[in-house]
Batch of 2 targets.
Target 1
Amino acid sequence: MQTTVRQANTEIARFRTLVGRLRNDFLRVTRVARTGIGQYEIECAACGQGHGTFKFQSDATDAARTHANRCAA
Ligand SMILES: [Zn+2]
């Protein structure tokens, strides 16, 4: 449950999902956003789900890339 006011997230990376690449669909992407100091979140526009919060950008981008390769949406 998010109780604080969220500021606009800053997108730092995006990976097209497997289906997005196959269909050349730019909307099917998994995004990594910086949501705070030392806080990165993964959101997938294809399946519409969040995929965790990470402390390090490298971890977040790795996880986003992994999800994009797995996402079936
Ligand atoms: Zn997904």
Target 2
Amino acid sequence: MSAYIQGRNVNLTFRPPNRRPVRALQNFDIDVNEGEFLSIVGPSGCGKSTFLNVLLGLAKPDSGDIMLGGKRIEGPGTDRAMVFQEFGLLPWRTVQSNVELGLELKGVATETRREVSQRLIEMVGLVGFETHYPHELSGGMKQRVGLARALATDPDVLLMDEPFAALDAQTRDLMQVELLRIWQEAKKTVLFVTHQIDEAIYLSDRVMVMTKRPGQAKKIFAIDLPRPRDYEMRVTREFNDLKLEIWNELKDEITSR
Ligand SMILES: Nc1ncnc2c1ncn2[C@@H]1O[C@H](COP(=O)(O)OP(=O)(O)OP(=O)(O)O)[C@@H](O)[C@H]1O
Ligand SMILES: [Mg+2]
């Protein structure tokens, strides 16, 4: 059986006017199973965000195949949602109306929108902040709004581009726990990009290491640690062995520029 998300030989070169072309992805292959949590780590500029944009349907590869549930990805769709590193919230909209954005675009009735947004606002712990604007929130709170907004349209696939990078260490830990809970409850397929190997191992079923640009899949690690996962797991021998293995694979890509 073929994988839920399947990328084969994906090539993408950016051709900015009056600049040299940049080859971002080269023969990039990936398989993601339905309901899987897969993380991608790789050097800065290796094409991780580019690949998520291809999956989202915003970037078009020059060649190669990208399939989702047996269908070729031709453009954006409500079966996929992205959580961005910079939150991507609309500053003139309140928490509630940011969360409801995707539902509005889908033409969902006000009453239903309210029900969905209220449930998600509760889920991410922002009750009482419904009418606040993004500038009145902390980074962690903005990130929660971004997560709630992505979940509002009930997508099958969550694309997460370094979603916790701007958070302080403790908030980040809490958000990781929260994300695992949501993932387990809502049974989404998650593609998660991060620079933190710890975070990738802790969250994932598998971790992919990419080469430096032009990005290729270098190696995939299966994370056979039991779930549910707890914080203590991060100090176990198995966890740290994996961390070292992944680091060794990644290190070569970072140091051989
Ligand atoms: N819209 C664009 N136009 C031109 N070049 C681009 C564009 N977007 C990305 N690139 C280039 O493509 C390459 C891959 O970028 P990408 O954002 O995918 O990297 P990344 O792996 O997400 O890096 P980081 O870890 O720093 O976020 C980079 O060299 C970048 O300069
Ligand atoms: Mg990026």
